[in-house]
Structures are given as C-alpha cells and as structure tokens.
Amino acid sequence: MKIELWQLAAALAAGSAIGFFYFGGLWLTVTRIPVSRNPHLLLIGSFFLRLTVTLAAFYALVPWGWQAMAAALVGLLMTRQILTRLKGKATVTRNAGSQAADNF
C-alpha cells in the first residue's frame, strides 16, 4: 500500500495530538494526586481513559497502513520528549527556588 506525503504528515500531527492528550492527562493526574480524596481511583480511571482514547486513535489510523502508524508513534514520542523537557525544567526551577528560600 502506497502512502502519500500528506498522510504521513497528518499521521505525525495525529500522533503529536495523541501524545499531548496522553502525557498532558498524565501530568494533570499526577498534580491532582495530593488533593484527591481517592488517589487510587483517580490513577486507575485516568490510566484507562487515556489508554482507551490513545488506542482508539491509533486504531483509526490502521486503514492508512503501518507507515502512518509509525509516523504517529514518532509524533507521540517527540511530544513525550518535548513535554518531559518543558515540564522537567519547570519542576527543577521551582524546586531550586524553594530550596534557595529554605536556605535563608
């Protein structure tokens, strides 16, 4: 099956959107654990919701072939790297600021 360039670009963008949904949802879940009355339910519910939506989105790309699935996976992994770097720096900066305040 021959896939066109626009389909690869669309699959890459879809993978990026899937990644933002999955890892953004994970970030929101983790930040809400301390204030949750039932953190176990929050974690399990969030996981299954994120997993279901992610798998459904990948399943929607199946008719385009394995190349589109691979492009979507690349988009998801690129988004993971970007969010990890952005959120990781924000966390390190925030923790460094609070540690500096603790030293005074």
Automatic annotation (TrEMBL):
<feature type="transmembrane region" description="Helical">
    <location>
        <begin position="41"/>
        <end position="60"/>
    </location>
</feature>
<feature type="transmembrane region" description="Helical">
    <location>
        <begin position="6"/>
        <end position="29"/>
    </location>
</feature>
<feature type="transmembrane region" description="Helical">
    <location>
        <begin position="66"/>
        <end position="83"/>
    </location>
</feature>
<keyword id="KW-1133">Transmembrane helix</keyword>
<dbReference type="InterPro" id="IPR017581">
    <property type="entry name" value="AtpR-like"/>
</dbReference>
<keyword id="KW-0472">Membrane</keyword>
<dbReference type="Pfam" id="PF12966">
    <property type="entry name" value="AtpR"/>
</dbReference>
<keyword id="KW-0812">Transmembrane</keyword>
<protein>
    <recommendedName>
        <fullName>ATPase F0F1</fullName>
    </recommendedName>
</protein>
